[in-house]
Amino acid sequence: MSPDAVLTANPLLNLGFKIPFDRILPEHAEDAVDTLLAATREKLERLAAAPGRNFEAFMEDLDTLTEQLDTVNTIVSHLDGVVTSDAWQAARKAIIPKVSEFRTMLGLHPGLWAALKAYADTPQAAALDPVRARHLKLTIDDFRRGGADLPEAGRTRLTELNTTLAEITNEFGKNVLDATAAFELYVPEGRLAGVPVRVQDATRRDAQEHGQEGHRLTLHYPVYGPILTYADDRDLRRELWEAQQRVGREPGRDNRPLIRQILSLRREKAELLGFRDFADYVLEDRMAGGGAAALKFERDLEDRTRAAFDAENAELEAYYRAQAGDSAPALAAWDVAYWAEKQRQSKYDFDEEQLRPYFPMDGVLAGLFEITRRVFGVTVTQAQAPGWHPEVRYYDIHDDAGVHIASFYTDWFPRDTKRGGAWMNSFFTGGPREHGVEPHLGLMCGNMTPPSGDTPALLSISEVETVFHEFGHLLHHALSRVPVKSLAGTNVAWDFVELPSQIMENWVMEREALDLFARHHVTGAALPAELYDRMVAARNYRAANFSMRQYSLGLTDLTLHVEYDPAGDADPVTVARGVMARFYPYALPEDYAMVASFGHLFSSPVGYGAGYYSYKWAEVLDADAFTRFAREGIFNRDTGRAFVDAVLARGNSDDPAALYREFMGRDPDPDALLRRSGILPTA
After folding, report:
1. Residue among 616, 612, 637, 640 at smallest CA distance from 626
2. Which of 204, 248, 445, 600 is the most buried (most CB within 10 A)?
């Protein structure tokens, strides 16, 4: 087939702004990547010869060198994650080593590295504006961190390491996805006593759709979470909890051996590049600066939260004994959520399930978009574009001048062919151009409570916060005004990237904001004042336990990437269990291996590896930054404009600490998060 024919036949090589998801098939992936790799290599060689053409548009061409390849790689990875199949998994597996090898080769290309250093010494480079000068500096730093100065043997080994890491981490993620999708448990209605009716209805309908009687239970959180929280059947809670713990350690899908391999490869890579460990390598260009600082940050929070954690657990134990008697068994992992919910209902006369009727998905989105219009001056409207599933929706974003600045897709509900969790990603990065504004394109995905029969999707308060969170990431992408693509939007330090997402969650607890969208899906009535007051009163219930769980994940991550020696005798799964054990109010089983399903750390070559602390780091930033909105008005347009101008529009065009100071006028207050959580008293 001729190159022109390939271009015509393969939709991945004919991408318009609206991606033709209705025509993209697994067999298109490898052909598209092969074609784009060949074209990108040609561009690379021309760039490496740049001194011969006086560096005309050198940095601009370098900035967009892999743009098409990256977009196709993102699309293939995305489809494997949302409509996975054997064919999509094979397609992704086929392209991973090719793309990984090329990206490593790109960073080690001696001609390009020489050209880049030569360009840095030219008058053109000296005359760059501050944003483009930062781009040049960070690009040089990336080449050095990527091994450009390594001898030939080192470059060869680095290529091998990166390719192997890409393959093994993909296998890790695939094992988690497959194991989660494979689990199902059919139970009679009698075993679901205490479980909300909406969950019973949904699981009954799911069983019918699978040709079975009773109720079909899965490990998707909209089912798993309510079972652990509400099911009176203790054996059922235990069965699901234990099934969740088996994810990542079943025969044929056992991730435990992969963890040591990944840690060993990451450590070798870091040492090859001149770093003590993988954390120092990853965090060098982030706000924390290194593994020691991140560890200190997490351990300081642990120390300051420990007393409140112990007090919460003593209170729960006393409540449990008063209800169940002194002869009742000790609280186990599958008991805590159940009894904590009963204690909360008793203490605050508040059950989160009472809120769901006021949070239909469509209403939540309408309210979110209205808040965004008031605070940030942008308008979101539903539009039309091909999707990868019938549930996919598509939207346009216009600024206050009516300019189309972005579009995005949403895909909110769980499927057996879709990975768990919630996430935002970008397909195209636009921004200011000579001819005007090129729009951005992104997506938001989740696994929220789905509609059931005639009942719309009714969200929990935490699911509402998740929708707001992911839209904060989307706004960071959509409102970017950085002319350099690689510095635009969410391409920032990972301990800064969660600030725009987490700050959005604050509006969910504000009465003025809730009045815009918290309406009963049947009656249209607003959220009653007394229910709102009980929700606010219960907001920080067991906040120390929630915080300690997050610390446990961050410290497990850092312990494995800083203090653990992959070449030693210790088992990393055992080490991880030892770290986590001190953060839970119950004894962990001897074979506890949650780390074997910890996709944030191990399902991509870097991912959140050595960076999970970023969530808490950014929570400090968001808790502190929202105090300005609270002080000046949560719908204050001037405050919103200041946040856009200092943070959302700026990407990585300046040091994140400087951007934060620009918005707040000072450095962050480290106590802001503990005060918001009720762990420290309000000043």
Report:
1. 640
2. 248
- Tokens representing 424 are 């935002």
Per the structure block, which two tokens stand in for 645? 């101008």
Between CA 343 and CA 313 the distance in angstroms is: 11
CA-CA distance, 513 to 518, in Å (whole number)? 9
pLDDT band at 3 (very low <50, low <70, confident <90, very high): very low
Residue 20 has pLDDT above 60, yes or no: yes
Do 488 and 469 touch, CB atoms closer than 8 A?
Answer: no
Q: What is the pLDDT of residue 216?
A: 98
**What pLDDT, on a 0 to 100 scale, did the predictor assign at position 487?**
98
DSSP designation for 519: B
Q: What is the DSSP string of 306-359?
A: HHHHHHHHHHHHHHHHHHH-TTSPPP-TTTHHHHHHHHHHHHHS--GGGTGGG-
Q: Is residue 242 annotated as part of the catalytic site, yes or no?
A: no
Which of 294 and 56 is assigned the larger pLDDT? 294
Q: What is each CA distance from 517 to 108, 413, 502, 635, in whole angstroms?
A: 52, 20, 20, 15
**DSSP code for 355:** T
Domain residue ranges in the chain: 11-149, 184-245
What is residue 586's DSSP assignment?
S
- pLDDT reported for residue 683: 60
Separation between Cα atoms, residue 525 and residue 532, nearest integer Å: 13
Contact at 8 Å (CB) between 495 and 611?
Answer: yes
- With H, G, I as helix, E, B as strand and everything else as coil, classify residue 181: helix
Residue range 168-221, pLDDT digits in tens: 999 999 999 999 999 999 999 999 999 999 999 999 999 999 999 999 999 999
The one catalytic residue in 302, 341, 470, 498 is: 470
For residue 436, give the H/E element and its range: strand 436-438
User: Which candidate, 607, 594, 649, 570, places its Cα nearest to that of 169?
Assistant: 607
What pTM was estimated for this model as a whole?
Answer: 0.89
Q: Residue 558 and residue 101: Cα distance in Å, rounded? A: 27
* Placement of tokens 């069965």 in the chain: 239
**Percentage above 90 pLDDT, the chain:** 94
Residues 6+ apart with CB under 8 A from 538: 344, 347, 348, 350
User: Considering the domain 11-149, what is its CATH architecture?
Assistant: Up-down Bundle (1.20)
Per-residue model confidence as pLDDT tens digits over 80-106: 999 999 999 999 999 999 999 999 999
Radius of gyration of the chain (CA): 25
Coil/strand/helix, residue 526: strand
- What pLDDT sits at residue 640? 98
DSSP β-ladder status, 440-445 and 404-411:
parallel
Confidence of residue 1 (pLDDT cuts 50, 70, 90): very low
Pairing of strands 379-383, 253-254: unpaired
Residues in the chain: 683
Start-to-end CA distance of the chain, whole Å, equals 71
Which residues 6+ apart lie within 8 Å of 114 measured at CB?
48
User: Cα–Cα distance between 500 and 493 in angstroms, integer?
Assistant: 12
In the chain, the percentage of residues whose pLDDT exceeds 70 is 99
Closest to 136 (Cα-Cα) out of 63, 41, 48: 63
Q: Which residues, at least 6 apart from 266, have a Cβ–Cβ distance to it below 8 Å?
A: 165, 278, 561, 609
By DSSP bridging, strand 215-217 and strand 253-254 are: unpaired
